[in-house]
Design brief:
The chain starts with 18 loop residues before the first strand and ends with a helix. α3 packs across α4. It has a single domain, classed as Orthogonal Bundle (Multidrug-efflux Transporter Regulator, Chain: A, Domain 2). The N terminus is likely disordered. The protein has a three-stranded antiparallel β-sheet with strand order 1-3-2. Helices cover about 60% and strands about 10% of the residues. It is mainly alpha-helical. β2 and β3 form a beta hairpin. The protein has four helices and three strands.
Amino acid sequence: MLEPSNNSQLPVIPGKRYFTIGEVSELCDVKPHVLRYWEQEFPMLNPVKRRGNRRYYQRQDVIMIRQIRSLLYEQGFTIGGARQRLGGEHMKQEATQIRQLIDQTVSELEDVLVVLKP
């Protein structure tokens, strides 16, 4: 994952499960209307919506917002460039997880095969 340099100046993320848009705004030093705009631009940013269409962000969403903030404000990426950068990292992580699942399944099937052979 990216380790944005300025994120050390941001407040520590509390150990809560869900955060309101106001809390995330303070934690990431980004205005709420910017967060709503980023939701449209970055498909991997998808907070839970509940009563009255209220947004509730999870910890991984806050971390993603901090990464987006760093790419746009500190590293000078365009929105398209930041989306591409984050999408590539997201795809790599997914591919690694899928590969691990396949390896585990193959191993389990080999164990079953050993038990079935006389």
